[in-house]
Design goal:
The complex is a heterotrimer of chains A (about 190), B (about 675) and C (about 575).
Chain A lengths: L1 H30 L10 E4 L2 E5 L36 H17 L23 E2 L1 H5 L2 H8 L3 H11 E2 L10 E3 H10 L2
Chain B lengths: L3 H13 L3 H4 L3 H22 L8 H38 L5 E8 L4 E8 L8 E4 L9 E11 L1 H4 L5 E4 L6 E2 L4 E4 L2 E5 L7 H10 L7 H30 L6 H11 L2 H20 L2 E3 L2 H7 L4 E5 H5 L5 E7 L5 H12 L5 H12 L12 E4 L7 E6 L2 E6 L1 H10 L6 H12 L3 E7 L2 E9 L6 H10 L3 E5 L4 H11 L3 E3 L4 H13 L4 E5 L5 H6 L2 E5 L4 H6 L2 E3 L6 H39 L17 H25 L8 H32 L3
Parallel strand pairs in B: 10-17, 10-19, 17-18, 19-20, 20-21
Antiparallel strand pairs in B: 1-2, 1-3, 3-8, 4-5, 4-6, 4-7, 4-8, 9-21, 11-16, 12-13, 13-14, 14-15, 15-16
Helix pairs in contact in B: 1-4, 3-4, 3-8, 4-6, 4-9, 4-22, 7-8, 8-21, 8-22, 9-21, 9-22, 10-21, 12-13, 21-22, 21-23, 22-23
Chain C lengths: L1 H30 L9 H11 L9 H24 L16 H12 L9 H4 L2 H31 L9 H26 L10 E4 L5 E4 L4 H10 L20 H25 L3 H28 L2 H5 L17 H14 L14 H13 L8 H20 L5 E2 L2 E2 L2 H31 L17 H16 L14 H31 L15 H34 L1
Antiparallel strand pairs in C: 1-2, 3-4
Helix pairs in contact in C: 1-9, 1-12, 3-4, 3-6, 3-17, 4-17, 6-7, 6-8, 6-17, 7-8, 9-10, 9-12, 10-12, 10-13, 10-18, 12-13, 13-16, 13-18, 14-15, 14-17, 14-18, 15-16, 15-17, 16-17, 16-18
The chains are: A mainly alpha (about 190), B alpha+beta (about 675), C mainly alpha (about 575).
């Protein structure tokens, strides 16, 4: 045992320097070359940073597309999912409430049209995206609130929809923040 | 198998073996015994106190009874195997019970021997006794004086009498055999109760039975499975508390007993005993269970050519005179040259001549001079009345002939080559330094031996022929018989060296031998089989003794060893695979009242929780006696290659072990439904 | 839907395709053959000289383990104190507090043993300094330790008879400089270019489009995330791990990260084949693992894309599967695939909340960790599989009538004893732990711990039981994922899982190395036609059967009471 202590101590110091100092500093240096300079990609409106492209925001007003329910209320200081089990009766009641509330805010939408992702919390609590279906089901409400033609908003959703990677991998998605920014720019 | 004579004592033994002192040697069954004991206490408690949490008295009683029967079944299997083994050994021992022995006492200063008749049991190691025609030999021993024909049929079943004589490798006699002619003096070599047979009986009876290495490893594995299931059952209590479920002690113990590998646990020692028993049935006495197990692993067999691969010794099969010599004259010369030749080859020449109508001539002793074989001349023969007849290897005779200025005839030269090419041995005969012709000696390969070697090869066992022949002849016979390798011109130490060489390559080697000079090699070999006719030294050195003196017995021994391991392996697999069905019977039964959804796991659709648990426990008990015949007979070994064998056994005992209990438990449940 | 499935297939195929050449490369590195990265040689020599190490000194299995355990102990002491005093140390822009002793104990061990069970949330529980100097550092060295242990096994199997399992220091150094660092660097850069933060800036404060003010956590995450995946560590920078949109920004990074989970564990199997020159053995092992892996993936993808039956009953549309705890950009199929990849490899990172998986998927994830040998953690996965091989060799050896042997060495009582004990150990740790927790919960719900037992569970009933079972299963497997609803940051869970972590890490390394040390010391037995070939499909199936039966028999009751009961009650 004794014979191994000294090399252990020295090797530990060397490895801290190599893996925990040199390595991350190198990555940070390369990170400076990336679009967000390694700080994350932001979205700017009128010269003001209004958010990170990849971090979801809370939208509660009827005039905006709503994102998915969040267990941290979109406070990106932290992150969390609901961690609710699929059979948890309390959880199922919360989902039922969300459905009811959605139906109130979106008259004319039938229950079977509501995509489950709109009434279930995301994994991170910061999900920046919606499925196209979850965006489209809100079009009627937004059209009514903003007094814009439904078709035009639908077209905007189509336009903002990101296709699967290379056309064949992964789901389609719509970035809620970008969609809402585009919505604000519409007139 | 279930002969009435064995059943009675076996049942009695089943109860005696319940003693914890015996039981603890088998950890799996020992835990069952503890469970049974707890069940007994619970049963008594539930009879005296009306406590709903421990379940109904009647039910507890039934569970206790089934567990108790499980224990008895396991003990019965072992007892039955012991009874059968003992019976086999007893029948051998019977032959040597109290016979009168003519003990020789040295009397006075002058050694006037006095013969005293005593009971055979009075003889001690080192005593000397006397046997003459018609006597039964009272004890194992070694002939120190004389020669006798002996009928060994009582031991070997072979009716042809054999000759035993003092000195050399055939000096051993076995108690119980009968002297047919002549008389011998024999020194006792074992103390009473210490003969190989006695040792074997002790092994079977369990007194000195030791676990073999594989058995130990398997016991460890089974013990760890048992521990896993202890954990499963103990932790089930808090789990059940969480699920608001009450589980009775009877249910816990039933689950536990069902899950631990009781089937293999109960049959393990029976399988081991049956292995030794099978060896005994093949007339092989094993000195330890380990030897039988090792036999299954053998990589290399050393087989003496003579008697194993070929029938007896080389025999003369033809006389080939040179062109200018007539046959009659040649054969006469051959007979004369072989008169004093006591080797089997020499004798066979006389025999062959006899079949051609040439009788042994009677000669006046003072007029003839026999020339012995020496390493220098490499020939032997006879000098008489101006005739110098010699018989020997081609080179030796040629040297002699050419030295005298003569030439070997071309036909003889060609014939010599021809014989050698056919694997035979040519012996050239000359008269007054003129070559007369050549005698052909041939080995006769035993019929069916090629198939046996082929079978061994499929088992992965290499066969090596040991012979005194020259490499050319050896190679020819080796090819013809289908052995993988040979040791030519073998001296006793060659065997030893070959064994050591193989062993240093990590191989397990077996050999068979009889002579005193075989003893070191027998001891060195992983499995050394001494022939019963062999010397005491050989028998002491080996770890098995073959009563039949049959060198091909090694092949059977290998298969018995393999069968032993296979039986253990397959029943272990079967036993563990059984647990799947038992889970599906018991787990839903335990929780169905508090978690109705688990009814979905009750895929056998068993009637009620109580019936489900009982069915599983009953199945667990009766599978033991059902598998006793298989354990005692052994699972058949087929030399189809290891992977194919594994696939086959996995399918039969693995998959079978998963499916069988589903059917069995369901059937028992339906039967129980008639009463419950 | 279909594009989700093709995405998963691509991830799997790419992992295998990359693992084969990487395996060959790893074998070359440790065999001392020429490789592309030989320019690292001077650096390694410098390290040896600096630390006074003779890289050529041979070690037997006991010396090897002594060196390994000594340096691990040093790391533990170092990490423990760093975590406790992190608030007093620099590089703490967000002003996070020091860890409590029990949490520091758990965290230090957890990262030391390559598990990364996190009873804290990365954004608030650690500082940038500890994220790097403790977490990232341990993520490298614990993975390198795993590789070193495995290479020792390789060395024992390579020679016919040997005492020498190689030099721990040199294998350890090379595992880092030649495998982990270069791969991590490449991956870190890819992540940075896809939007994962890499700078040392602290939390950002922004006003959202709707006018709310929120904070956004950031930090030098990209490098740490790379090694977290590649080293099967799994501990994320952010609390929700790779479900976090900065940790795993898009489907492309998800592909990269998923491949990174599987890459080295798979490659090490191929490395075995190249290193000991028994490629067929490696293919058989890989095939057996993959068969079960694909079955598990299929089950989880089926159930996750099918959706939560309880939500179906409410009459809403579940076209893209069960999305509670999942992210839109990743989708249910990729999350289901990840759930198996991460539990197979003892990685433990997640890209969706396992607590919210449908019952069967959650159960399969646990089953996967109970086996813990389908590819398995870096290095240790194959060591675990080796234990199963020993048991399979033993039983099948008996079944073909020959004293069992593996690669020319007899497997006897001592080896069986060790293998049986290791198997027993995981059953014991998982079940005893869960039973202890269930006992406390039922009988002492009000103990005054930071989280009372009565408040541990985030979900009632069968699912609550699964939360406890999952936690101990994950700890024993050194996995690190969790049913995170469990209130686990308190003395009970920190200490019990900490102990399980230590035992679940070191004994399954010591055991196989002891076995291989003992085996390698024995006489070599050449193969004959009576020998059972361990590189045959038949033996592969046999090993699988042993794995399934042992696992099923050990864990059937708790799995029935948790996931299965939940599943059947929802039907």
């Amino acid at each position: 045992m004794k014979r191994y202590i000294l090399p252990s101590l020295k090797l530990t110091v060397v490895f801290i320097i190599v893996t925990a100092v040199i390595y991350p500093v190198l990555i940070a240096a390369v990170g400076k070359l990336t679009p967000g300079q390694g700080r994350g990609e932001t979205i700017t409106v009128n010269g003001k940073v209004i958010g990170y492209a990849n971090v979801g925001q809370k939208f509660a007003e009827d005039k905006y597309f709503w994102g998915r329910p969040s267990a941290v209320d979109y406070n990106a200081a932290g992150s969390a999912g609901s961690n609710k089990g699929p059979s948890n009766p309390d959880y199922l009641k919360i989902v039922q409430d969300r459905i009811d509330s959605f139906l109130v805010h979106n008259p004319g939408v039938k229950k079977e049209q509501i995509p489950a992702e709109l009434v279930t919390a995301s994994g991170s609590g910061l999900d920046p995206d919606l499925s196209p279906a979850a965006a489209k089901v809100q079009v009627k409400r937004i059209a009514a609130t903003r007094h814009i033609d439904e078709a035009k908003i639908l077209a905007l959703v189509e336009q903002q929809t990101v296709k699967p990677l290379l056309g064949f991998m992964g789901p389609e998605k719509v970035n809620v923040l970008k969609l809402n920014v585009a919505l604000d720019e519409m007139k | 198998m279930f002969a009435a004579e064995f059943i009675g004592p076996a049942i009695q033994q089943s109860f005696i073996k319940l003693s914890p002192r015996i039981m603890w040697r088998n950890p799996v069954m020992f835990t069952v015994e503890i469970g049974t004991l707890i069940m007994l206490l619970v049963t008594i408690y539930s009879f005296t106190v009306n406590d709903a949490t421990v379940g109904r008295f009647g039910y507890n009683l039934v569970v206790f009874a089934v567990l108790f029967v499980t224990l008895l079944f396991a003990n019965f299997a072992e007892a039955l195997a012991e009874a059968r083994g003992k019976a086999q050994a007893d029948s051998l021992r019977k032959t040597r019970e109290e016979t009168p022995a003519k003990k020789i006492n040295a009397v006075g200063e002058i050694f006037t021997d006095e013969i005293q008749v005593v009971a055979s049991s009075m003889l001690r190691k080192g005593d000397i006794f006397y046997c003459e025609t018609g006597d039964i030999i009272p004890m194992d021993g070694e002939i120190i004086e004389g020669l006798a024909t002996i009928d060994e049929s009582a031991i070997t079943g072979e009716s042809a009498p054999v000759i035993r004589e003092a000195g050399g490798d055939k000096s051993s006699v076995t108690g119980g055999t009968k002297v047919l002619s002549d008389h011998i003096k024999v020194r006792v070599t074992t103390e009473p109760g210490e003969s190989f047979l006695d040792k074997m009986i002790a092994l079977v009876e369990g007194a000195s039975r030791q676990k073999t290495p594989n058995e130990i490893a398997l016991t460890i594995l089974l013990a760890s499975f048992t521990l896993i299931f202890i954990i499963v059952c103990v932790t089930l209590k808090p789990f059940a508390d969480y699920a608001n479920t009450t589980i009775t002690i009877a249910a816990y113990i039933s689950l536990f007993v069902c899950l631990i590998p009781t089937t293999i646990g109960g049959l393990l020692s029976a399988i081991g005993i049956a292995g030794m028993d099978r060896a005994l049935r093949a007339n092989v006495i094993t000195k330890s269970g380990k030897a039988v197990e090792t036999a299954g692993d053998l990589d290399t067999l050393l087989l003496d050519k003579t008697g194993t691969i070929t029938i007896g010794n080389r025999k003369a099969t033809g006389f080939w005179p040179a062109g200018n010599v007539n046959e009659k004259q040649f054969i006469e010369a051959c007979v004369l040259a072989s008169l004093a030749d006591e080797t089997p080859e020499g004798k066979s020449i006389i025999e062959l001549a006899d079949t051609r109508g040439f009788k042994k001539p009677s000669l006046q002793k003072d007029k003839v001079h026999f020339v012995e074989f020496t390493a220098e001349t490499r020939s032997s023969g006879i000098d008489m009345e101006g005739l110098h007849i010699r018989k020997g290897a081609f080179d030796a005779i040629r040297q002699k002939v050419e030295k005298a200025g003569n030439k070997i005839p071309v036909e003889t030269m060609n014939k010599t080559k021809e014989i050698a090419a056919d694997g035979g041995t040519p012996l050239v005969v000359s008269s007054n330094d003129t070559a007369l012709g050549v005698i052909e000696l041939q080995d006769i390969i035993k019929p069916g031996i090629q198939e046996r070697f082929e079978r061994l090869r499929k088992m992965g066992v290499k066969t090596v022929m040991v012979t005194g022949d020259n490499p050319l002849t050896a190679k020819f016979i080796a090819n013809k018989a289908g052995v993988d390798d040979f040791i030519a011109e073998a001296k006793p130490e060659d065997k030893m060296n070959y064994i050591k060489k193989e062993q240093s390559g990590g191989k397990l080697v077996a050999m068979m031998g009889d002579g005193t000079n075989d003893a070191p090699a027998l001891a060195q070999a992983d499995v050394g089989v001494a022939m019963n006719s062999g010397t005491q030294a050989a028998k002491e050195a080996g770890n098995m003794v073959d009563l039949d003196n049959d060198p091909t017995k090694l092949i059977e021994i290998v298969e018995i060893g393999k069968q032993l391991l296979i039986t253990r392996g397959t029943i272990t697999t079967f036993s563990i695979a059984n647990d799947v069905a038992k889970y599906f019977a018991i787990v839903p039964a335990l929780f169905i009242t508090s978690i109705p959804a688990l009814q979905a796991l009750n895929i056998m659709n068993l009637k009620s929780p109580e019936s489900a648990i009982l069915s599983a426990v009953i199945f667990n008990a009766i599978i033991i006696p059902l598998l006793i015949p298989l354990s005692l007979r052994g699972v058949q070994y087929k030399p189809i290659g290891a992977s194919a064998l594994l696939r086959r056994n996995l399918l039969v005992y693995g998959l079978g072990g998963i499916i069988a209990p589903f059917i069995g438990i369901k059937l028992i449940d339906m039967l129980l439904g008639l009463w419950l | 839907m279909n594009t989700e499935l093709t995405g998963v297939i691509v991830m799997f195929l790419l992992s295998v395709l990359l693992a084969i050449p990487l395996g060959k490369y790893i074998a070359k590195v440790f065999a001392g053959e020429k490789t592309l990265l030989d320019f690292m040689h001077p650096l390694e020599r410098f390290i040896y000289r600096l630390c006074g190490i003779d890289p050529n000194r041979k070690m037997n299995w006991k010396e090897f383990l002594a060196a390994m355990l000594t340096i691990n102990l040093v790391w533990f002491v170092y990490a423990f104190f760093m975590l406790i005093f992190q608030d007093k140390l620099p590089l703490n822009p967000d002003g996070n507090a020091g860890q409590t002793p029990d949490l520091a104990f758990n965290t230090a061990i957890s990262f030391l043993v390559n598990c990364n069970l996190q009873h804290y949330s990365g954004e608030s529980g650690l500082t940038y300094l500890t994220q790097l100097l403790v977490v990232t550092f341990l993520q490298f060295v614990s993975a390198a330790t795993g590789i070193a242990a495995l290479v020792a096994l390789f060395n024992g199997l390579k020679e016919k008879t040997t005492n020498n399992l190689g030099n721990f220091w040199s294998i350890f150094v090379k595992a880092t400089t030649r495998v982990l660092l270069p791969l991590s660097f490449v991956m870190g850069v890819i992540l940075a270019f896809n939007g994962t933060p890499a700078s040392f800036d602290g939390k950002d404060t922004i006003t959202t489009l709707q006018g709310d003010t929120v904070n956004v956590s950031r930090g030098p995450a990209a490098g740490m995330i790379a090694i977290k995946q590649l080293g099967t560590n799994g501990g994320g920078w952010f609390g929700v791990n790779s479900a976090h949109p900065l940790e795993n920004p898009n489907y492309f990074t998800n592909i990269i990260e998923t491949i990174a989970i599987l890459l080295i564990p798979m490659a090490l199997i191929f490395a075995l084949g190249y290193y000991i020159k028994r490629k067929k053995l490696a293919y058989v092992i890989f095939g057996a693992m993959t068969l079960l892996f694909i079955i598990f993936c299929s089950i989880n993808i089926y159930f996750e894309t099918k959706g939560n039956p309880a939500l179906d009953k409410m009459g809403i549309a579940q076209d893209i599967g069960s999305m509670e705890g999942k992210e839109i950009r990743l989708g249910s199929a990729a999350t289901a695939f990840w759930s198996i990849a991460t539990t197979s490899t003892s990685n433990g990172s997640v890209n969706g909340m396992h607590d919210s998986l449908t019952p069967v998927s959650g159960g399969v994830a646990m089953l996967d960790m109970m086996i813990n040998a389908l590819y398995g953690g870096v290095g240790v996965g194959l060591l675990n599989y080796f234990i199963f091989i020993i048991i399979a060799v033993f039983i099948s050896g008996l079944m073909v009538g020959r004293t069992p042997e593996f690669m020319g060495h007899k497997v006897e009582a001592r080896e069986v004893k060790i293998a049986a004990l290791i198997t027993l150990l995981s059953t014991f740790l998982i079940k005893a732990g869960t039973a202890f927790a269930a006992y406390m919960l039922v009988h002492h719900p009000d103990v005054g711990w930071a989280v009372k037992p009565g408040a541990w569970l985030n979900n009632p009933g069968y699912h609550g039981f699964s939360e406890m079972l999952y936690e101990f299963t994950s700890a024993n497997a050194n996995n690190g994922s969790g049913f995170e609803g469990l209130g686990d940051n308190n003395v009970f869970w920190n200490v019990t899982t900490g102990i399980v972590l230590i035992l679940g890490r070191y004994l399954p390394i010591i055991g196989p190395l002891a076995i291989v040390g003992l085996l390698a010391n024995k006489k070599y037995i050449p193969q004959s036609s009576g020998t059972l070939r361990t590189d045959s499909m038949t033996f592969g199936v046999m090993t699988l059967a042993v794995i399934i039966i042992i696992t099923a028999l050990s864990y059937f009751p708790p799995l029935a009471l948790g996931p299965l009961a939940e599943y059947f009650s929802m039907k």
